[in-house]
């Protein structure tokens, strides 16, 4: 067994099922996320990846299954029993497929909005801009600047977010989620719509989070190069079922994974080429 699979793991889902109007979207899905590791979720369109993330972030209620999350005191909490409104306080942050940042604000101010649930100042102090409120604001800004530095955006902290190219806006969203000081970060297709250079930058940001041991991460991604470069483990779903959870190398050479991605026809063509090459003849004339 992989060491990440043994306690103390950080997050474990077991036997998760979800249906919509008789259509089973998740069927007995299980996964394990190691402490401060990155777990990729991959699979063809409609495999149930976003639905799984929606179950973890309490947008969807599963019909069966459990999700345990490690608490700061070292015990485990049943995530599905926590009020959905309390998830941020328990350190769960998420980004969405479509960018959801505030267009009228600067980069830094967007990131600051991620910290709202951490602020403890009183209304009257805020109104009068008294000592505690001012101190809290300074600390918050310093922490947000550190996060911007981590994701490579400190140079554009003061820029209006609308002036940034798409790839940078995706990193602003990542920075805002990090400003929540999460213990679990859920990323839904962080590289969707990005060019190669922008994908490399978001991958570098995810790796920086991992190396700084800030939080455990789960990410849905279609870009297998990004997945294999940043993920410790990969969970493969197809038609709502788990095909495999393993390290990226094992996953990319798993026959069911190849078949799910390329289809049975492509798989049999690959098999034919392999057989022909093994016999020593030219596959193109076979
Ligand atoms: N709220 C919903 N109501 C009805 N069906 C839903 C709902 N959410 C998801 N589904 C269905 O569940 C299935 C899985 O969808 P999901 O978005 O989880 O897949 P996915 O693997 O994330 O796909 P993609 O890679 O295209 O984003 C699809 O058939 C989808 O239509």
Automatic annotation (TrEMBL):
Annotated ranges, domain ABC transporter: 11-264
InterPro entries: AAA+_ATPase, ABC_AA/LPS_Transport, ABC_transporter-like_ATP-bd, P-loop_NTPase
PROSITE patterns (UniProt xref): ABC_TRANSPORTER_2 (PS50893)
Keywords per UniProt: ATP-binding, Nucleotide-binding, Transport
GO MF term list: ATP binding
Classification via Pfam families: ABC_tran
Transmembrane intervals: none
Coiled coil: none
Protein name (record): ABC transporter ATP-binding protein
């Amino acid at each position: 067994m992989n060491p990440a699979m043994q306690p103390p793991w950080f997050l474990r889902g077991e036997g998760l099922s979800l249906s919509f109007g008789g259509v089973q979207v998740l069927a007995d899905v299980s996964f394990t996320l190691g402490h401060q590791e990155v777990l990729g979720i991959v699979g063809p369109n409609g495999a149930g990846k976003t639905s799984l993330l929606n179950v973890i972030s309490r947008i969807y209620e599963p019909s069966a299954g459990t999700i345990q999350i490690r608490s700061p005191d070292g015990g485990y909490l049943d995530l599905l029993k926590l009020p959905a409104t309390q998830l941020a306080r328990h350190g769960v942050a998420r980004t969405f497929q479509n960018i959801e940042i505030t267009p009228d604000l600067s980069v830094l101010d967007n990131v600051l909005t991620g910290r709202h649930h951490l602020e403890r100042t009183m209304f009257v102090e805020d109104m009068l801009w008294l000592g505690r409120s001012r101190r809290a604001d300074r600390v918050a800004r310093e922490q947000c600047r550190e996060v911007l530095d981590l994701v490579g955006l400190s140079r554009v902290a003061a820029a209006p977010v609308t002036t940034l190219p798409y790839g940078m806006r995706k990193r602003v969203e990542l920075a805002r989620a990090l400003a929540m000081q999460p213990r679990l970060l859920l990323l839904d297709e962080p590289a969707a719509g990005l060019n190669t250079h922008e994908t490399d930058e978001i991958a570098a940001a995810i790796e920086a989070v991992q190396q700084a041991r800030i939080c455990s991460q789960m990410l849905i991604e279609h870009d297998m190069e990004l997945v294999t470069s940043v993920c410790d483990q990969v969970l493969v779903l197809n038609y709502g079922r788990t095909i495999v959870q393993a390290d990226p190398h094992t996953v990319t050479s798993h026959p069911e994974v190849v078949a799910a991605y390329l289809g049975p026809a492509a798989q049999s063509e690959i098999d034919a080429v392999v057989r022909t090459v093994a016999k020593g003849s030219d596959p193109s004339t076979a």
